Amino acid sequence: MAEHDILLQVEHLTKYFPLKGQPGPGIRAVEDVSVTLRRGETLGLVGESGCGKTTLGRTILRLHEPTSGAIVYDGVPLYRRDYPFQPNERGELVKRSVPRAQAVDMLPYRRRMQIIFQDPSASLDPRMTVGEIVGEALDIHKLCRGRAQRAARIRELLSMVGLNPEHAGRYPHEFSGGQQQRVGIARALAVEPEFIVCDEPISALDVSIQSQVVNMLEDMQAQLGLTYLFIAHDLSVVRHISRRIGVMYLGALVELSESWELCRRPLHPYTQTLLSAVPVPDPERARSRQRMVLQGDIPSPIHPPAGCRFHTRCPYAAGRCRKEVPPFREHTPGHWAACHLLGGDNPSAPVES
Amino acid sequence: MRLQQTPAPPPEGRPLLEVRDLRVSFFTPAGEVRAVRGITYQVDYGEVVGIVGESGSGKSVEAYAIMGLLQPPGRVVGGAVTFEGEDVLAFSPRALTTFRGGRAAMIFQNPMTSLNPVYSVGEQLMEALRAHQKAASRREAAQRAAGMLERVGIHNPERRMRQYPHELSGGMRQRVMIAMGLICHPKLLIADEPTTALDVTIQAQILELMKDLQRQTGMGILFITHNLGVVAELCHKVCVMYAGKLVEQGAVDDIFYRPGHPYTEGLLRSMPRLDDQERRRLIPIQGTPVDLLDPPAGCPFAPRCPHAMEVCLGRMPPYVELGPGHRSACWLRVREGLSTSPAGGEEASHG
How far, in Å, CA of B244 to CA of B248, rounded? Predict the structure, then answer.
């Protein structure tokens, strides 16, 4: 891969939310995630609620300040800091002193990196017209000279996302959910970004509207050469829109692969159960297939299990899984997974083709 | 503990639940919102019927009407609901109280808003038993509540009974709500999007649980959802609702393999599926749902339908029989010369 193909590099990114009055790391929402985004690609991120996928997306944009790790955007390090914890003799994480973070002023990068939120009604100010909402970004980054140009640009953006430009004077509540999400997309596009974090952009929408928005996101990408980080819990949508998919569990990336390969040959037992849990709209198949049902609930990210985080629910967990954190390794070209039971050193791998 | 003896044999020819030409409106300051506009279907003993539709299609309102749970300004403005031959809409408040939670129970999308936050799980389960005189003593009620929790896959039920809803995970709360719904052995369970708020792995657990419980108890289930995948997993029969109308109904295989209404076809085609063999451009349903303050005179889907004809905009199509128990309200099917029954909204017979 040529250097210039890489738009975003995330290295060992970690985000902890400290708990008041408690020593230690607090909620370990994202831990040691490394991933690279190529220019113009869509990377999907799936996982259950609480797995850290939204936190990862927001931390990459530095809407949450990272705890440690590095974010390199288009060759420029936006953030870099060493990991400020170390395990003590009981295995608990205790603070250690590290140099201050190296971080840049984000304002110029806000123009290049944008986000679309899950709940369109909650992410649009109810007291601003959609014209003002879309125009605000233009003002902050001083992208338009004069009122006429600004108004023209707002109209252009609204029609780009399939809204009637005459409706710029209306308020968010006058629009349906699908239309509100289009306003959110127009706002993100206003500053002509290169990279957009799409955080569950269609989950709140009705089934018949979802595919309209998915198609529109694809069209925008083709027209404007956008790079997406597409976060969602719906695997079928993520596979459809993404070139590669990362699977997260309890703050960690457990598998990363080209999207169709991931669904055809999931390596990690968690990905396998996730795929098997998706209801398929095909009664014949629903009757015949054997489903891997995961027992129990996702553990607390305050005290994630030692070793492999998935071992408490994994049907194949062995002794080593309870002690050692499995390394994130490339098993076939471009197909990465973190599981002790994979690979040449263990013939009883839980993988079937 | 055994959940229930074998279900009562279905009385000859009588469905468990019969909904006939049901109409529900909300009388708002802006006018009459006609949320349910004449729907007819039935649920037989031991049958799982799915009601599919988008938000605003009337699928939940219709269920609330069956259970007598409609709140003003909502009101049943026409039609009949018959449960085991009895007219539910004519029940006195007292009869309704015995009916709800006793012979018919309902579970909801969000267990946190359905469970009482200031009572323990055990107290809430036992209250249901005591209210329906299903347990002689507190002790017996506690025993049966614990047994029920175990049935829905909750380990260590004695401890869980002492806990409060906020101490449980989302999946656990939904199990508690299912336990509460089933504790008086209802013959009909209405489940309103019970897995929508859950993660996909937890959804799979709850669906497997509901399948098992249904097989063991032989109860009928009315399963309301917008998720076609869930319908394919669980339901025997499907009713597709759009803008307060039932546009198609049939056996689950009919709906998925031989859809007879452009809306059903559109829904099936629009979503990406994990069993797709290659990437394809999605084919969305264009436009947005209709305004129920002023519903169109004709087929409600006509403004979004790629096949809409002159007649579709002006008149509601009649039901066309596409096969045994499979019918669709679509003028295209009428044109194919298949036998029809009276117009979708007005029809009074049932098949």
Answer: 12
